Amino acid sequence: MDILFPTWVNFNNTSVNADIHIFRLAVSEHLSKLSVYKKILSSEELLRSSRFYKAEDRERYIICRGALKQLLGQYLQTLPERIEIILDKNKKPVLKDRLQLHFNVSHSRGSIALAFSDNNIGIDVEYIDNNFDYKPIAKACFAMAEMDCLRESCNAAEEFFKLWTRKEAFLKANGKGLNDDMNQLNCLGELHEKQIAAPGYESYRIDSFKIEENYIAAVAYNCSREKLRFYTI
Predict the structure, then answer these.
(1) How would DSSP label each residue in 15-47?
(2) Is residue 177 pLDDT above 80, yes or no?
(3) Residue 76's CATH number
(4) 56 is in which domain, residue-wise?
(5) Is residue 122 within 8 Å of residue 220, measured between CB atoms?
């Protein structure tokens, strides 16, 4: 369960059919593009953004959704404002009538992560907060093996967020959202085998990696390929 320290390169508009694409972006570096992103968003998306009380939350939502639709537009070779994102039966965002392209998004503080694949995929990113009281959450949500790993770690805070992102990435990729049973889900290994007796739980690979120094992320995917490509936008 090593942490990857990937080399991040500029996106070259490669087809997603070849690999799994992971993107990172810093909110602060995209604030100048707010007006551009607003033009991409639908009226419903703009209304949703207006409901955020804090300005930074509104800005992050607009940047996240705008960048997502720009990338989807490149993959599908269509205008980003024509991209229609809906929720499936499990409340997971998907493309309307474009089920061959899968994506997932996560954000934490000033960092956003996006993942694209031609199969189920989930991504989660967290800021490593050394002052966060993680023990109640770990006790309620971690499997016994994960708790043992946490206790044995020399950096418990980072280990907690690494395990948490792995668990969240898996649940987002699978789309089932069995949050009440998270303590039955052991995501320590690279290959998570079926452990919960519920339809649709297949084997997923989970990889952990650093977005930047204080941000850790995980990506989960249920395909055999292992080639991850990392991009900065």
Answers:
(1) -TTSSEEEEEEEGGGTGGGHHHHHHHS-HHHHH
(2) no
(3) 3.90.470.20
(4) 3-232
(5) yes
